[in-house]
Amino acid sequence: MKNILITGGAGYLGSVLSELLVNEGHDVTVLDNLMYNQNSLLHLFHKKNFHFIYGDVREEKLLRSILPKFDFIIPLAAIVGAGASEKHPETTNAINYQAIALINRLREENQKIIFPTTNSGYGTKTGDVFCTEETPLEPISVYGVTKVEAERELLKSNNVITLRFATCFGFSPRMRLDLLVNNFVYKAIRDGYIVLFEKHFKRNYLHVRDAARCFEFCIENFDAMKNEPYNVGLEDANLSKEELSWKIKEILKKHGKDFHIQESEIGKDPDKRNYIVSNKKIMAKGFRCQYSLEDGIEELIKGYAMLYDRHYTNF
Ligand SMILES: NC(=O)c1ccc[n+]([C@@H]2O[C@H](COP(=O)([O-])OP(=O)(O)OC[C@H]3O[C@@H](n4cnc5c(N)ncnc54)[C@H](O)[C@@H]3O)[C@@H](O)[C@H]2O)c1
């Protein structure tokens, strides 16, 4: 069993990953500044192999004092998403890039890093050609640029795996409604309509639990995978936003519900994401997703019965 540090482990992906690795028997420490006031890890404190440090990844003194004991470092802490990054560009650069470079500098070479980045850096492609790990990354948003710079920095050194994740979906103790699938299903159910802009733009998708499982897979197969980037997403889910909307409609209909799809000229994706992705490289290493897009949509439909803010509405 390994000693693992997860920075940003209280986030959407981190809270699912922390639970998975704790349940596998690893000794897991989360370092997080709880920037969303989230209490997403309360269910793990009864486990002796779970530890939490309230702190900031930009604090060099703190990092120096805690880093030495870990076999694996999984740096998730970030300002995540184009929208958030454009609001706070300097902070985003400090957390998403500089803090990663700092961790890389401070760790011993035998301490292994598994770093998640985004495949939205492939964004400006046409949507016709499959992007592989060889396809040049050309991110536009501050988020995309800082993640790609951090990945480049890490891949210059030894004992690193980078995972270029598709857009995640599904429930997490720190839920995010700004992710595309989560957002569309929520709007379809709550508002009864989805407004679609750039409807032909294609994206790739991945269940948050498969993203977490992928880190575990990398821990187990580290030597066979190290020092390379890997795309990670559902091989059969390279869907345009329009196709995604129709899939949600088809599944909701089975539940006796419907919603309206409204097309709009207004609205632009900050990373101009229109790309399809090949996930063959990680599949060749043996990784398989367990949750389909349909599984995730069904899960969200069920779960949104619980996740509804009734504070400011009468119905
Ligand atoms: N969710 C996705 O679809 C997706 C896709 C690709 C890559 N990723 C990557 O996965 C990681 C996690 O994303 P997420 O969706 O869980 O986002 P999130 O916003 O839910 O989680 C980020 C976490 O980092 C913490 N954090 C932020 N700044 C910090 C700081 N200075 N010090 C300590 N903690 C800090 C936050 O409190 C939060 O818990 C990110 O690195 C992101 O780039 C996510």
CATH topological fold name of the domain at 3-169 and 205-234 and 277-290: Rossmann fold
What is the percentage of strand-forming residues? Answer: 15-25%
CATH-level-2 architecture of the domain at 3-169 and 205-234 and 277-290: 3-Layer(aba) Sandwich
pLDDT under 50 segments (min length 5)? none
Identify the strand order in the major beta sheet: 3-2-1-4-5-7-11
- Number of DSSP helices? 11
CATH class of the domain at 3-169 and 205-234 and 277-290: Alpha Beta
Largest sheet report: 7 strands, parallel
Describe this structure in words.
With 315 residues, the protein is of the alpha/beta class. 37% of the residues lie in helices and 20% in strands. Strands 3-2-1-4-5-7-11 form a 7-stranded parallel beta sheet, sandwiched between helices. A 3-stranded mixed beta sheet has the order 8-10-12. A two-stranded parallel sheet has the order 6-14. Helix 1 crosses helix 7, helix 4 packs parallel to helix 5 and helix 6 packs across helix 9. The radius of gyration is 19 Å and the shape is globular. It starts with a strand and ends in a 12-residue tail after the last helix. The model has no long low-confidence stretch (mean pLDDT 94). The protein binds nicotinamide-adenine-dinucleotide. The site of nicotinamide-adenine-dinucleotide has 29 residues, from helix 1, strand 5 and strand 8. The site of nicotinamide-adenine-dinucleotide (NAD) has 29 residues, from helix 1, strand 5 and strand 8.
